[in-house]
User: What shape does this take?
Amino acid sequence: MLKDITIGQYFPAESPVHELDPRFKILIMMIFIASLFFINSFWPYLLIFAWSFLIIYAAKIPANMVIKGLKPLRLILIFTFLMNLFFIPGEEIFRLGILSISNEGLHQAVFMGIRLVLLVVGTSLLTLTTSPLALTEGIEKLLSPLKAVGFPAHAIAMMITIALRFIPTLIDETDKIMKAQMARGADFESGNVLNRAKNLVPLLVPLILNALRRAEELATAMESRCYRGDDHRTKLNPLVVTSQDKVYFAGNLIFLIVVCATRWMAVPLP
Assistant: This one.
């Protein structure tokens, strides 16, 4: 199940989405995330789902790979759904003992579930179609105006990218440690939630030690290559905005603005 997590992974392919400027992809993703919280009806979410699968198809990413990335979030989705379903007050439509379901709670629970799914799909698409190097450069360029006030744009961009890059690495390490512990008789699947949590404690020490070791190795490798941040740093392939990038950004921006505008439409929406 751990290997199903797609956030932080890069899927190399020759597609129009992979070739787009990372700055525009990051901006569109930020607007996309913000737009999810403006929508207050169901049918705009259908448009967002269609838009997401269109990008998946254009990026030549296997759809089952993106869907598998949702499996590790099952418990979070169920917990969020139930919390909104039973604890948001409103017009009661069903009661089960001390728990009651309201019309407002049902709508909010469904909305939050859809938003979480789309958040994971959207962020996964960004990392799947953007290499770590391009992602670092894109974040740095977007934060570069803040350098005037002493903001360490390059350092922040590098930390974000390395953190994302370490996600699949740590997942692989966790999987290896779990298999080694299970071969020695450890049980991570039986018992209640509390017992499972206690059984995971032996994983933390070797996982943290391996993470620190890998971080030290990465720091040593960067220093041996004379890495000094962005001081006098040149680039082999600098980012250049093309007409394709402008068309992509404008088209997606208009689409997301129209989706957000449905919140203030006078026509009643389902």
